[in-house]
């Protein structure tokens, strides 16, 4: 990380050492623990243990999804998205925006998404 700029809309703009810029909200960031190991060289990564990965996974809590289970709610929303995707008016929102056609799209929309991406994430129980 070379530079961080705070904007007036709770958004940090980071300029990484590889030259890329990234916009991040405070909700995208987590504090780095003191005992963490850092990469030895610029551009390297740090291996993540299976235990660390498991600790990051979401675990539904009792009653968190209301009267239904997580699977029931995800399936219910999947059916609704399938119904929406059958409508012509929804076509513009059915798949990701092609950044070759609209190269500035990501500079205007901070967190682009579309119904097919949401559908895939629901199937994988990402939410």
What does this structure look like?
This protein is of the alpha+beta class and 127 residues long. 28% of the residues lie in helices and 9% in strands. The protein has helices at 50-56, 70-85, 105-108, 115-123; strands spanning 3-6, 12-15, 21-24. Strands 1-2-3 form a three-stranded antiparallel β-sheet, with no helix packed on it. A hairpin with a 5-residue loop joins strand 1 (3-6) and strand 2. The longest helix has 16 residues, at 70-85. The two termini are 30 Å apart. 0% of the residues are buried.
Features:
127 residues; alpha+beta
What can be said about this structure in brief?
The protein has 4 helices and 3 strands, in the order βββαααα. The chain is of the alpha+beta class. The longest helix is centred in the middle third of the chain and has 16 residues, at 70-85.
